Amino acid sequence: MSDAGLKSRLVPRLLLAPAVSTLLLWMIVPLAMTVYFSFIRYNLMRPDVTGSAGWMNYEFFITNPAFGDAVFNTLLLLGSTVLVTVVFGLLIALLINDPFPGRALVRVLLISPFFVMPTVNALLWKHMMMNPIYGVLAQVWTFFGWTPIDWMTDFPLGSIIIMISWQWLPFAVLIFVTALQSMDREQLEASELDGATYLQQLRYLYLPHMARAISVVVMIEVIFLLSVFAEIFVTTAGGPGTASTNLAFLIFTEALLNFDVGAASAGAVFAIILANIVAIFLIRMIGKNLEN
Amino acid sequence: MSFAQKSKSATVIRSSVAWLIALVMFFPILFLTVTAFKTELQAIAVPSVWFFEPTLENFTEVQERSDYLHYAWNSVLTSVMSTLLGLLIAIPAAFSFAFTPTRRTKDILMWMLSTKMMPAVGALVPIYVLSQKTGLLDTRFALIIIFTMMNLPIMVWMLYSAFKDIPHEIFEAARMDGAGLWEEFRHVLLPLGMGGIASTGLLCLVLAWNEAFWVLNLTSSQAGTLASLVASYSSPEGLFWAKLSAVSVLAIAPIVVFGWFSQKQLVQGLTFGAVK
Amino acid sequence: MAFLSLNNVDKFYGDLHAIKSVNLAIEQGEFVVFVGPSGCGKSTLLRMIAGLETIDGGTLMLGGNDITHVIPSKRDLAMVFQSYALYPHMSVEDNMSFALRLAGEDKAVIAKKVAEAAEKLDLEPYLKRTPRALSGGQRQRVAIGRAIVRQPKVFLFDEPLSNLDAALRGQTRVEIARLHRELGATTVYVTHDQVEAMTLADRVVVLRAGHIEQVGTPLELYDAPVNKFVAQFIGMPQMNLIKTDGINGVPAGAVEAGVRTEHMQITDEGNARIKGTVELIESLGNETLIHVRPDGADSHEMPLIARQYSRSELNMGARVGLGWDDSQAHYFNTQGENLRITA
After folding, report:
1. C71 vs A5: CB contact, 8 Å cut-off?
2. Chain B interface residues facing chain C, Cβ-Cβ under 8 Å?
């Protein structure tokens, strides 16, 4: 092979090498260790018990009644948050698309929750917003003469969905607003001449135009929401019972609260499998939209 | 519906609704900030107090009790260093993907993203064990490495979609002008990709600053960031709202204010190529 | 030995044989134009000469050196891109001096060379501006200036005028011709516009589907196209093609006659070779194009066109005859080869 030809093939690969190799390490090493741990007896409190565990850890993890709940909660949390943020994100983006007095400030206010760290987000909502006695929501409920809701006890997962939606709604709005700005004005005017109503414009012009942006929002949110942890950790701690335990939190309780690394690793393998199922599903479904 | 055709009252209604939503969305942050300046008694008063003499007592107490600056410095150091390290690794990769795409480019990109979908908790035990064995538990170094790896897929993806918009021919022109790889980087990619690089860096700075999972699980007093400082103020009874608010405000203020100022820049790259 | 020579040059994209064993010798100072329909490989060939595409077979020689696998920056060629590819973040001056600066040239020398090029191209008032602040024509001149400054062995142009409007295209074409006269530099120029090819080239290379159909001076191609493809590609409006069955006096083996519009004569019906009806008359002032539909032709077939340099008295619908002088006609066989050339 000639010098130039070799170089032209080699250089792009060399540039990729650091990213690909570190990510590969980052993926393979923990994965291999997790799989290994999942087949041995490994409890931090019982260093004397060792040896192969066979499928015991998996059995233990699956038969744990919390497992089914955790899978369900993980998917419910993901699905509802994505739905809420995409729907409201689109509505708000359409609302603030045209100029109005103070639009720049409105944008700044709207985007702010995205920068709030999950731990603060969770504490803020748990105490100051959702506390059944002193919380702002309780005051609002009382003002309208309703009985205040004990959010953390009665709607633990719902409360967490609200917190996370509050955090991710700004992200969706931002991307949708940017996408709307590239909407073809002439296309809209042409459709007006064709007699399209605003609803028809939404259905036939805005939505198709937004398809790519929606895909991106869904993709990014799935990436971040499959493993929600901090919000649960600082608010409900997965409770009451398992009502707000997702897979990430269940594995955490096994590993660091029950010190059963073996069972936790078996759980992690499940989490990885679940993530991959969602990933394949997702890439099939919206990967096409991300092509150029 | 073109702008000109909308009646004036419709615009008034529309902007009022927009303002209302914005205020509702921002209200929790406002409330948190106001509470930080209250006494503990005022903080839990029902109905909420809005007019009072602000006190700085909570802030001084937070600093005294738990050395805010130590955690803040950890946050700054880990987020800035991990962002720089991430850019260093991600820029060449994104450059390669954008300008010498192969049949497998899309697959590699998707694979990178899929590593991000695996929940961090899946890697928690191994990483914990590894950090413990190598003595990296509760060190800023470990956090920097972990934040870098955590953000790398997103960084490559964002940079890739930004670089893709730079016309190919400009690089070819530079090559014809005698530019080698380094000169292409230095004189073409960096200046023309600066917008994308900046927004990628900004987002990763925000994500690293706000990261809680690894911080809560791998650090305690040494390398803890503001995320863990806040968590340590959480008491099950939910008492001491004023101090909790003060520490929260201290934790989020730098990044929120930073976010406000960099908002325009940030959004440009955040679209991940979703907007042509 | 030619200055720039392509010897059996090949290009593959996977299974696609994009450039098929091309041979071409270009002399020093020559202006060579590649033309052909889109997808014929003309730009690919140019980019292979530039080094922007690898050469998968054969050799490329420049001034006696084998540069087949030399990287672009070491080939000593300059290229003007279709999109200009100016560095948007650099001033005009910096754009033009970039190559020299990279080469570590002396500052005073750079300044002098840039000033010279700017003068030649009327760019002096714009040296401090960025490309964004320039019009399309000015950007084009900067792109050319960037090439000139380097004094390369060969200039490469990739459809440089296609982003300009018609008036500017004509003006810039004249300017490129002038520059070539002044600099005497070897130039390879790609275009799909035959007017550019005819007016600029010392020699024109007609490409189709990755191989060369014909190489020759513009008038050679016009007067003696080797086949039907070249005959139809060069000349506007296209050469008339007439099925020869039923027409008297055609050479043996001919299936089609090719007659340029200016050689097509309008006669009385009488005993003309072809009879038909006038379908359209385009009066352009200096010339008149008369479209005639031959009797028995399908409506989707192209009408035959006769060009006259006088005004026409005919009306649409008039019955006319068409004829031509055999010495000015081309006859093509079933392979499309021009019998006059191959015989």
Report:
1. no
2. 167, 169-170, 172-180, 183, 187-188, 191-192
The neighbour count for residue B276, using CB atoms within 10 Å, is 9
Domain that holds residue A163: 56-291
Which residues, 6+ apart, have CB-to-CB distance to C173 below 8 Å?
C161, C195, C196, C199, C200
Please compute the mean of the pLDDT values over residues B3-21 and round it to a whole number. 79
User: Rounded to whole angstroms, what are the CA distances from B87 to B142, B154, B163?
Assistant: 18, 11, 13
Q: Which residues contact A215 (CB under 8 A, 6 or more apart)?
A: A286, A289, A290, B274
CATH classification at residue A233: 1.10.3720.10
Distance to chain B for A23, nearest Cα, Å: 7
**CB-based contact B183 C83, cutoff 8 Å:** no
Whether residue C69 lies within 8 A of chain A, CB to CB, comes out as: yes
**Could you tell me if residue A21 is inside a domain?**
no
Asked whether the predicted pLDDT for residue A169 surpasses 70, the reply is: yes
Tell me: pLDDT of C260 over 50: yes
Residues of A in contact with C69 (CB under 8 A): 2-5
Spatial CA neighbour of B206 closest among B268, B151, B244, B139:
B151
pLDDT at A285: 66
Q: Give per-residue pLDDT as tens, B193-218.
A: 988 899 899 989 999 999 888 898 88
Q: For chain B, say whether C71 makes contact (Cβ under 8 Å).
A: yes
Rounded (5°) CA angle C235-C241-C244: 150
pLDDT given for residue B1 in this prediction: 46
Rounded to whole angstroms, the Cα distance separating A279 from A3 reads 41
A181 contacts chain C (CB < 8 A): no
Give the chains touching A; criterion: ≥3 Cβ pairs < 8 Å: B, C
- Residue B155: the pLDDT is 92
Question: Is A49 within a domain?
Answer: no
pLDDT band at A259 (very low <50, low <70, confident <90, very high): confident
3-state class of B233 per DSSP? coil
- Smallest CA–CA separation between B275 and chain A, in Å? 5
Domain architecture of chain C: domains with CATH: 4-227 (3.40.50.300), 231-342 (2.40.50.140)
- Residue A267 included in any domain: yes
3-state secondary structure of C4: strand
Position A41 scores a pLDDT of: 77
Strand order in the sheet with C274-283: C265-267, C319-323, C274-283, C288-294, C304-308
User: Which residues from chain A sit within 8 angstroms of residue C68, using beta carbons?
Assistant: 2
> Which residues in chain C have Cβ-Cβ distances shorter than 8 Å to A2?
68-69
A251 vs A269: CA distance, rounded Å: 10
Task: Work out how many domains chain A is built from and give that number.
Answer: 1
In this prediction the ipTM stands at: 0.86
Rounded to an integer, what distance in angstroms lies between the CA atom of residue B210 and that of residue A11? 36
* Average pLDDT of every residue of chain B: 85
Of all residues in chain A, the one with the smallest CA distance to C54 is A5
For residue A290, is pLDDT > 70? Answer: no
Contact in structure between C36 and C10 (CB atoms under 8 Å):
no
User: Is residue A47 assigned to a domain?
Assistant: no
Helix, strand or coil for residue C205? strand
Q: Which residues of B touch C98 (CB under 8 A)?
A: 174, 177, 179, 187
pTM for the complete prediction? Answer: 0.84
Query: In which residue are the tokens 């509802």 written?
Result: A80
pLDDT of C120 over the 50 cut:
yes
Domains of chain B: residue spans and CATH: 66-272 (1.10.3720.10)
Is residue A100 scored above 80 in pLDDT? yes
Are A115 and B206 an interchain contact pair (Cβ–Cβ within 8 Å)?
Answer: yes
